[in-house]
Amino acid sequence: MESPSRSTDFVALGHAGSDHYAGLETFPNPGASHVEMTSDELAAICPVTRQPDLYVATIEYWPQQRCIESKSLKLYLNGYRNEEHFCEALAVKIRDDVAQALDLPADKVRVTLKQKSRGGISITATS
Questions:
Q1: Nearest to 75 by CA among 45, 41, 103, 38
Q2: What percent of the chain clears pLDDT 90, i.e. is strictly above it?
Q3: d(CA 15, CA 5)
């Protein structure tokens, strides 16, 4: 995955597909004190079985100067579909990338991944 970037000019917004993906794009915070974004389109590959793991991802943050643009987040999350990650490690990676893009300390970002049940077991990891 490319490292997250910050921009005031949106690259992905308004363009179909992911050809215009430029990292996690941000915009000036209009005054929000808390943001929660949820996606049920996150997938990654299990490093052991090589089977797809499907997730519901909830990303919460307490913004200061910047907010995440949602289309860039969608494209960012979509980039994991062919990568191998354990649920717990992926939660930490996403948290760290969002914190970096927003110039926030990690404790101002919370990521919860709910792995959809496979083999009768589901996992929820929060970072």
A1: 41
A2: 75
A3: 18
- Can you give the pLDDT at residue 4? 45
107 is catalytic: no
Q: pLDDT tens across 4-30, in order? A: 444 456 555 555 554 555 689 999 999
Provide the CA 17 distance to its chain's centre, in angstroms: 17
Q: How far is it, in rounded angstroms, from Cα 95 to Cα 61? A: 9
Active site residue 53: yes
Of the residues 9, 46, 67, 107, which is catalytic? Answer: 46
How far, in Å, are 4, 5, 33, 56, 121 from residue 91 at the CA level?
A: 15, 19, 22, 11, 18
Element (H, E) at 99: helix 87-102
Residue-wise pLDDT tens digits, 71-93: 999 999 999 999 999 999 999 99
